[in-house]
Amino acid sequence: MGDEVFHVGDPRTLKAVAHPLRVRLLGALRADGPATATELAARFGESSGATSYHLRQLARYGYVEEDEDQRDRRERRWRSAHRATAWDSAEMAATAEGREAAAFLRRRQIEVLTADAEAFERDRGFWSRAWIEAAGMSDEVVRLRPATVAALHERFDALLREAAERDAGAPDAEQVSVFVAALPRRRPATDSPPPEDRRGSGAGSASEESRRGSGAGSASEESRRGSGAGSAPPEDRRPRRGSGSGPAEESGRA
Fold first, then answer.
1. What Rg do the C-alpha atoms of the chain give, in angstroms?
2. 1-168+201-229+237-254: CATH number
3. Which residues of 194-228 are buried (b: 16+ CB within 10 A; e: fewer)?
């Protein structure tokens, strides 16, 4: 698998991966390495014809490629061409096709986060004490500027890459599902609204690139530190401004 990020600028290319089976196929290749259409079909309960077709479509748009080190020449072995996918929120918000694709991927990220957290909670007895103590999720509510949030994402990405390279060959290393989110909260009606040029476009902040992700997921974490805010206050549950296909702000990486 390539180590670089696939920067998508064409809504049609992003739409190509915004498909229930394709996003799972891509996630599996990124998380678990190369596989054939037959192997992936067995994993996801699909026919090999269906997985083969969707893998070819992913290859057509640059998401996957044939593995150069295929073990079985009788059947293609596919691998992810990149470690992550990124897109520009403003570019995707400019068309209905882009908004729909970006909204699908945001929902997928939420689904994976939920599934991973529930899996970890269900399988707590499987993990060692070291993992139980190390794993977890944190949440806080603070006041930050958009530029500060963007800088935090950049710093975290760099730290994560450094840690992943350092631990890659460690005997006690496991796949770890890492999610990063920084989302502006809707202000109460009594507050002044943010300046017009800072409002979301319908697919995220127009000036920010969507955060990246593998599209996959494995074990997740327990909550270690909370903001004390609990569920969002009533005014935070109102619909976000935007296209109507998803929340106005970016939810994460895909």
1. 19
2. 1.10.10.10
3. eeeeebbbbbbbbebbbbbbbbbbbbbbeeeeeee
137-106-52 Cα angle (round to 5):
110
In whole angstroms, give the CA distance from residue 76 to residue 151. Answer: 41
For 35-73, the pLDDT digits (tens) are: 999 999 999 999 999 999 999 999 999 999 999 877 667
**What's the token pair of residue 223?**
């909550």
Q: How far apart are CA 30 and CA 64, in angstroms?
A: 10
The residue type at 31: A
DSSP state, residue 68: T
User: What b/e sequence results for 79-93 when a residue is b if at least 16 CB atoms lie within 10 Å of its CB, and e otherwise?
Assistant: bbbbbbbbbbbbbbb
Rounded distance between C-alpha atoms, residue 73 and residue 40, angstroms = 17
Residue 98: its H or E element: helix 96-122
- Closest by CA position to 81, among listed 17, 125, 154, 147: 17
Q: Let me know the angle formed at the C-alpha of 215 by 74 and 97, rounded to the nearest 5 degrees.
A: 100
pLDDT tens string 11-44: 999 999 999 999 999 999 999 999 999 999 999 9
Q: How far apart are CA 57 and CA 64, in angstroms?
A: 9
Alpha-carbon distance 29 to 77, whole Å? 10
